[in-house]
Write a structure and sequence with these properties.
With 149 residues, this protein is mainly α. Helices cover 50% and strands 5% of the residues. The chain has a two-stranded antiparallel ribbon with strand order 1-2. Keywords: DNA-binding.
Length: 149
């Protein structure tokens, strides 16, 4: 099982907005550069993130995307779920009436997938921000101008 580039890049984009934007709109090219994601691909990803209600866009020279979801409430399962289907066992279970040893691997796989979803649901974007700060990565938030006379 493997996460798609779309899911990984989408998570990078959400994290970038939460970590670097300071709540201000950020242009896709800036996010793409920091997150190391192709701009065209990122534009498509942002459309899905916007449909999911995680980001909003603003047009114009000071425009871009802004995170509107609360990082403490936005889970990895939510981000991945907005961009692709979360892992689940295909509907190939043996007939429930007829008990068979063939069901054992199916049940175990379903339990594993369930635990994966639970884990993805426990980790939030706020947790990623905290990890970035613990690792000492600088933030590139726009702080405006300071005028001294």
């Amino acid at each position: 099982m493997r996460l798609s580039n779309r899911a990984i890049y989408g998570l990078r984009a959400i994290f970038d907005l939460a970590y670097h934007s300071g709540g201000e709109p950020t242009q896709v090219r800036e996010i793409a550069e920091r997150a190391r994601v192709p701009v065209r691909f990122l534009e498509q990803i942002f459309l899905d993130l916007k449909r999911a209600g995680f980001v909003e866009s603003k047009r114009g020279p000071r425009g871009g995307y802004r995170l509107v979801a609360d990082p403490a409430a936005l889970t990895l399962a939510g981000v991945f779920g907005a961009l692709e289907d979360l892992p689940e066992l295909p509907d190939v279970l043996v007939d429930e009436v007829e008990e068979s040893a063939a069901q054992v691997p199916d049940v175990v796989c379903q339990e594993i997938f369930s635990k994966m979803i639970d884990l993805l649901s426990e980790v939030t974007v706020a947790d990623l921000i905290e990890r970035g700060e613990e690792l000492g990565f600088s933030r590139q938030c726009y702080e405006g101008f300071t005028y001294v006379i």
